[in-house]
Write a structure and sequence with these properties.
single chain, 137 residues, mainly alpha, 0% strand, elongated, transmembrane helix, transmembrane
Length: 137
């Protein structure tokens, strides 16, 4: 494994970081446009922090980690198929572990909880309005 964490891995990761940033900004922009109500309820800061807790880990794992790891594995004399499957395994492991940490560790736990609760409240109100259900308040 030390051969994989060579300069080739670091170089490939640094090449992919701008793509990660662009993809993350596009995702935040699209979500911000279609989630006006959630953004209004949470405020811009909580909205962005909650969304970033959801989007950053998988995007980083797919764009940066997997491509850099696959490149490093190929240069460490693994075959193309071996590099592909090993990079997929480590990418999925990274995503599962990182999301578990994000969901359970403060302060990200609170940001994610608030973001999801706002979504639930919005959909509950929409469905009640669509089906003509009056609130019990």
């Amino acid at each position: 494994m030390p051969d994989i964490l060579s300069t080739a891995f670091v170089e490939r990761a640094s090449e992919q970081l701008p793509w990660f940033a662009v993809a993350l900004l596009v995702a935040v922009g699209i979500t911000s446009l279609v989630s006006r109500e959630r953004r209004r309820r949470l405020g811009l800061t909580k909205f962005l922090l909650g969304y970033l807790c959801i989007a950053a880990v998988p995007l980083f794992g797919v764009i940066v980690l997997r491509s850099a790891l696959r490149e490093g594995l190929e240069q460490a004399s693994h075959g193309w198929w071996a590099a592909l499957w090993l990079s997929l395994f480590w990418m999925m492991t990274f995503i599962v572990v990182a999301q578990w940490i994000v969901r359970r560790m403060p302060p990200t736990r609170g940001w994610l909880r608030d973001y999801r609760q706002a979504g639930r409240d919005i959909w509950r109100e929409r469905l009640a309005r669509w089906f003509g259900i009056r609130s019990r308040d």
